[in-house]
Amino acid sequence: MCGVVGIMGNQNVVQELYDGLITLQHRGQDAAGMATYDGRHIHLRKANGLVRDVFHTRHVLRLLGTMGLGHVRYPTAGCQSDEEAQPFYVNAPYGIALAHNGNLTNYESLKNEVVTENLRHLNTTSDSEVLLNVLAFELMKETHRQSKLSAARIFKAMTRLFKRVEGGYACVAMIAGHGLLAFRDPFGIRPLIIGMREEAGKKKEYMIASESVAFQTMGYKIVRDVQPGEAVFIDENHQLHTKQCVKGKLQPCIFEHVYLARPDSLIDQVSVYKTRMRLGVKLAKQIKQNPPENKNKLGIDVVIPIPDTSRHIALTLAHELKVKFREGFIKNRYIGRTFIMPDQEARKKSIRYKLNPIPLEFKNKNVLLVDDSIVRGNTSRKIIQLARDAGARKVYFASAAPPIINPDVYGIDMPTRKELVAHNRTIDQVCEAIGADKLYYQTLDDLIAAAREGNPKIKKFTASCMGGGYPAGNITEEVLKRVEEARPYHDTDDVNKTAA
Question: Which of 2, 253, 431, 465 is an active site residue?
Answer without folding.
Answer: 2
